[in-house]
Specification:
80 residues, alpha+beta, 2 helices, 30% helix
Amino acid sequence: MARTLTFQATQGIARLTPVHLELVSAALTRAGASGLKPRWITKNVQAELRYEGIDGDKAIELANGAVKGSGLVIENKPEA
């Protein structure tokens, strides 16, 4: 089942860049995730990353570790 991580830049503190998405994608891929599909919602402010193959809690842990100290807020989007 596909899951989605959402990324939100903290206003006045952080800016979301393609590098952040690449870092998280690499961390998830190393952990066995597949089907990664990033999508910008608002350029440099908010994005989504769809993935399959790993648990949502593990994905959050890896994503936060990949961009630690960046000021980004990363959450699992509830499945519809």
